[in-house]
Amino acid sequence: MNNNLLYTVEDKPPFGLSLLLAAQHLLAALGGIIAVPLVIGNVLKLPIPDTVILVNAALLVSGIVTIIQCRGLGPIGIRLPSVMGTSFTFVSAALAVGFSEHGVAGILGSSLVGAVVMIAGSFFMPNIRKLFPPVVTGTVVMMIGLSLISVAVDWFAGGQRSDANYAAPENLMMATFVLVIVVALVQWGTGIFSAAAIVIGMMTGYLLCLALGWIDFTGVKEAQAFALPQPLHFGLSFPITGIIGMAIAYLVTIVESSGNFLALGNATQTEITGKHLRGGILCDGLGSALAAIMSTTPFSSFSQNIGVITLTGVASRHVVALTGGLLVLAGLFPVFGALIVSIPLPVLGGAGLMMFAMIIAAGIQMLDNIERSKRNGLIIAISIGCGLAVTTRPELLDKLPIFCKEIFGSGITVGSLLALILNLILPQDKPSKVE
């Protein structure tokens, strides 16, 4: 982790450099932002134009909410460099509603009403902040990094384990090439070369892939040049079961986002207060309500981008607000997003593995500062062990009721909840008696 930030939260790098640095965050987040609407569109077998509307709205609203989260709007927003995007936490609940007679209208209506849970919950965040002492915070940050490693490994290998070309030697070599460039630039680069290490490494990898003929421009050719948002395109309906499912998912997201914001505070060297959490969670909830109206799925903060900050030392909220502007453009000009999506997965994997591992390192450093006691050891071990169990073997939950999968399907959620609960119920270690 960087002890000295190249750019602090309030710093404003020159516009040209800011644009390059903002592109790093865009590259790290774009795949995750479009993944959820693509999954929902494909599983529900929506017509391609409808899936495109979901994707474009996700990009556009992600940009708007990211800008508000970074710059603030009255009491709304954490005013730290946080990228916002569609969340996989809501996929199970969304598909359950989508397969009913209510379809996408039911998903969006349930999401709109369920967002009230997050909006209301934001006003209790100053009290909730007291439940996150260093042992809990460090455990949550470490669990965030650990849960992302499997994503980076699949990128590194070139796709999913079921793919025929998974872990092909050429994929591993390309990812390693990008990884080496990023590490070299972070370690020995100065100025822009260190700050923009991720985007430079990925651009170099992309150019090499282009020379090797690896780039598929089919999506770019098929993408629309310009697309206007279509509010309420699918309509809204309000099934009770869907609202309950979404409300549970929003409660889970409060825990996940709180962990992300605490990790963000560590990365930006900012003490996270209850006021920070209240503004951040309120922005989450209102952003998700806006997403429903604009015809896409709910939002949460992205942990991937915390790795970018940790690795590069660029903590400027103004840079990430510019990322929000790029996301708005991607939503209005789908061809722009399609070009970014054409980046081969091994190129993403080379940078991603380093970014996510740095979050783990940040968590370890936080835990290194706490008292070494049996109680703290139990909190860390049980929370991370159970969180990794769900992350590495999600089929553990297959035979449980669907609401259990919705609540405990995320390793971050399991680890965070256990750390919170164990910290509350385990008795403090008794001081040793002096003989």
Automatic annotation (TrEMBL):
Matches recorded under PROSITE patterns: XANTH_URACIL_PERMASE
Transmembrane ranges? 20-40, 46-68, 80-99, 105-124, 131-152, 172-188, 195-215, 235-255, 319-341, 347-364, 376-392, 407-426
Query: Tell me, what is one Gene Ontology molecular-function annotation carried by this entry?
Result: xanthine transmembrane transporter activity
User: Which domain of life, per UniProt?
Assistant: Bacteria
Q: How does it sit in the membrane?
A: Multi-pass membrane protein
Q: Which InterPro entries match?
A: NCS2 (IPR006043), UacT-like (IPR017588), Xan_ur_permease (IPR006042)
Family per similarity comment: Belongs to the nucleobase:cation symporter-2 (NCS2) (TC 2.A.40) family.
Q: Which GO terms describe its cellular component?
A: plasma membrane
Its chief place of residence is membrane
Please state what the protein is called: NCS2 family nucleobase:cation symporter-2
Query: Which NCBIfam families does this entry report, sorted A to Z?
Result: ncs2, NCS2_1, pbuX
Q: Is Cell membrane among this UniProt entry's keywords?
A: yes
Sorted alphabetically, which Pfam families does this protein's record hold?
Xan_ur_permease
> What keywords tag this UniProt record?
Cell membrane, Membrane, Transmembrane, Transmembrane helix, Transport
Q: Is the keyword Transmembrane in the record?
A: yes
Q: Where in the cell is it found?
A: Cell membrane
